[in-house]
Specification:
The protein has 154 residues and is mainly α. The protein contains five helices and no strands. The longest helix has 58 residues.
């Protein structure tokens, strides 16, 4: 788990350094698209690793060292995000970062809804398949029954 947190934080650090070193020469926000994606991904990885407790011993979960590292790493990631938000707003105008965050949240929500819709559609198709198989099975059983009766009558 600690390795996952460090990987996430390292990704955040790398992204922040890239943005800092290129903020003054950027012509538009697309210059930072990859770094911003990495920044969000690193922050998400660190948060997921922080919340992932299954399989750890009690001392690993609740030890002072573990808790302190998790809290400090989360705060550092939040500080870095705020730092990038300020740099981007100063360079590209107020509200740019908020727009990026809102658009990201919108796309994540749309992806979740699309996945839920796909799962629902798959369940419906599976239900239709089972119903069709049940009908075919019933017709086949009825056919066998009639065929058996016909054979015994002759």
């Amino acid at each position: 788990m600690l390795a996952e947190v460090l990987t996430g934080i390292a990704l955040v650090q790398k992204s922040v350094e890239f943005i800092k070193s290129n903020i003054d020469t950027a012509k538009d926000i697309s210059s930072f698209a990859g770094a911003i994606d990495d920044l969000f991904r690193g922050s998400d990885e660190a948060e997921k690793a922080r919340n992932k407790k299954a399989g750890l011993s009690i001392s690993d979960q609740f030890g002072v060292e573990s808790v302190a590292k998790e809290v400090i790493e989360a705060k550092l990631a939040k500080e870095r995000l705020q730092e990038v938000a300020t740099m981007i707003d100063l360079r590209f105008g107020p509200g740019t970062w908020r727009g990026i965050v809102e658009e990201r949240a919108k796309r994540i929500q749309e992806a979740k809804e699309a996945a839920a819709l796909a799962r629902k559609k798959q369940r419906e198709e599976q239900k239709e398949l089972y119903e069709t198989l049940a009908i075919v099975g019933t017709v086949f059983a009825a056919f066998l029954f009639i065929l058996t009766l016909f054979i015994f009558i002759l």
